[in-house]
Amino acid sequence: MVHDETKEKPVLYKEYENGKIGCLTLHRPENLNAVNEDLLDALHQTLGKVASNEKLSILILHSTLEKAFCAGGDVKEIQTKSNEEAARFFEKLATVLDTITKLPQLTIAAINGIAFGAGADLAIACDYRIGNSKTKIKFPGPQFGVILGTHRLVNEIGPSKARHLVLTNQLMDTEQSLHHGLLHEISEEDDSFNTAVTRAQAMLHMTDYTRRELVKICSYEEEVHAGDPIALAKESVLQGNFQERFSQYVETVKKKK
Length: 257
Known about the structure:
Blueprint: E1 11-16, E2 21-26, H1 37-51, E3 58-63, E4 68-70, H2 75-78, H3 83-101, E5 106-111, E6 114-116, H4 118-124, E7 128-131, E8 136-138, H5 150-157, H6 159-168, H7 174-180, E9 185-186, H8 192-203, H9 208-217, H10 229-238, H11 242-256
Parallel strand pairs: 2-3, 3-5, 4-6, 5-7, 6-8, 7-9
Antiparallel strand pairs: 1-2
């Protein structure tokens, strides 16, 4: 297989403040950063390096697009997969989400525009979330039978609000997202990334130990009795005919446009 050196990387990574702040950029602009196999592999590789970087204190996850943080899973690619291949894909995605939640660094999601499905789960996996006036969030996965990131959602916003969002697939605008706890703040300058950098720079004044322990203390520690989230993501796809469910969902979305 010939490697295409001209192909743009789906994930970019840079460090600032003498290597104390890292910026991980989702970079599939032509697809609104939809998650495919290449992006997942790049995330897995980059996050592995981040996890082992003892000098790094804070990681910002963002997109350079004004209208999209991440549009969700790559529909065209997912539709080419067998049920078993789709199960492995969502298992891999769940593993990436789990990696983000367990990073030793503080994580900040800068969410300009839409964060749907896998994009919403990537955002919720982060410790602190900043939106702008165009931020919209929803969790459509359960509509086609996928349980992904729900454990973290419950821990972040509570069981009642989480139950409402995953059962109704309701689209949450900026103010609703803030009210539900999906966002911690809205950028006053309407640029979530700039605000995230400002917040990160201020948070560097804390010691790594203090910042890390505060995140732990402010985490909801009660066990969610629903099994391992990675295994659950895979098993939910394998129930019945996933591709049939997914295609029906895609057609429903198309009719609403």
